[in-house]
Each structure stands twice: as structure tokens, then as C-alpha cells.
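Milestone M4 deliverable, item 7.
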Amino acid sequence: MKLTTFRLFLAGLILALSLPVMAMNLQQAMAALSQTKSQGLVGEQPNGYLGVVQSTEQSEAVVKLINDARRAEYTRMAKQNNIAVADVEAIAGKKAIEKTASGHFVLLDGEWIKKR
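Output delivered:
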């Protein structure tokens, strides 16, 4: 291997090793949601959004990505139905809590509790 080729290879290797791990995308967050709920890391809130029960890098990423997507959908639905976004959030929150599986966390009266 020529010296210039070796230097280019070495520079590429150093660059690759110095790059941070790729951030999670929405599809990965959706795939991880069930597991993070089962682990007690995230839960449903009455406002229609996920909340962090136990803070980890994964739980924070899942909550942010999914909540951003929910916020966009709630806004779209509110505009489509000519109602307030807060009304859509409240309806979605109620439904999400009702659908939450036993053993997963929900936020009720400001406290995280496991649904029975």
C-alpha cells in the first residue's frame, strides 16, 4: 500500500471512529416503544404524550421522537376538524391511558403508577 493511500485510509478510520453513534429515527423509536414501556422507562400521560418514567438515553430519544410525531398529527387533526389542539391531545391521552397494558406506567394525578 502506498503511503498516500495508507494516510487516506488512516484518516478515514480516525474520522469514522470519532463520529458519534447515529441518532435514533422515528421508525426505530416506534419499534423500541413496546420494550421501553415494558421496562418501565416510559409511560402514557393524560395530555396525549409519552413521558419519561426513568431517564435513559433511549427513553429520552423515544419520547422526543414519538411526541414530535404525535404533536404533528394532533395539529393536523385539529385543523382538519376545526377544533383546538388541546382538545385532540386530551382525547388522545384518555384513549392512550385506556389502552395501556396492565403493568405499564401511566401518569395520574402527577404520579407515575403501574396500571392494573
